[in-house]
Write a structure and sequence with these properties.
Shape: elongated
Strand content: under 5%
Helix content: over 70%
Number of strands: 0
Length: about 180
């Protein structure tokens, strides 16, 4: 398939428009097939690849530089766009949270969170035995390991889990009674 160079005609003239339409019509089935073949490996939709290639073709035609071998150019363009898509997908990282989401940072939420922390710490202090020290160590901002907590409390690391479970049960009962009493 051969198409004349639009530079030989008036830009924006009927011949250029007709040639562009013929080129698009002739390449559509090939582009659909090539994009379908490359899309899965690129991790994208065939329509997205097609759209990117059409855009590249229109940019070339706008610059008065149509491809000399349209079918070969199209195959190369599809592969290039597929590689670009794979590379982009490898480099992109999703946000853990919405960056504009500051709903939990308004004064009301901050005050309620501080009140909950104070109530929890007060309940922890009322626990029996070693539970207050254990729970304070677990709630510490230092993010201590079980080994560090066990060393600090003078107990074996193996008994830390069962002791933690017993203390959490006591704390749950204590908080349930407080909430029910309100």
């Amino acid at each position: 398939m051969t198409f004349g160079r639009p530079g030989n005609h008036r830009p924006g003239g009927r011949v250029v428009v007709h040639m562009t339409h013929d080129l698009v019509t002739a390449l559509r089935p090939l582009l659909t097939a090539e994009a379908s073949a490359e899309a899965y490996a690129a991790g994208t939709e065939p329509g997205d690849l097609e759209q990117a290639v059409w855009l590249r073709l229109l940019e070339r035609l706008d610059a008065q530089d149509p491809p000399r071998d349209p079918e070969g150019w199209l195959r190369r363009a599809v592969r290039t766009e597929a590689r670009r898509t794979r590379r982009t997908a490898r480099l992109e990282r999703p946000y853990d949270i919405e960056p504009a989401d500051d709903a939990d940072r308004d004064p009301e939420h901050l005050a309620l969170a501080a009140a909950r922390r104070r109530a929890l710490r007060a309940a922890v202090r009322r626990l029996p035995g070693r539970c207050p020290r254990l729970m304070e160590a677990l709630l510490s901002e230092q993010d201590l390991t079980y080994r560090e907590i066990a060393g600090e409390l003078g107990m074996s690391q193996g008994s830390l889990g069962p002791e933690r479970s017993r203390c959490l049960g006591c704390l749950r009962r204590l908080l349930t009674l407080e909430v029910a009493g309100r």
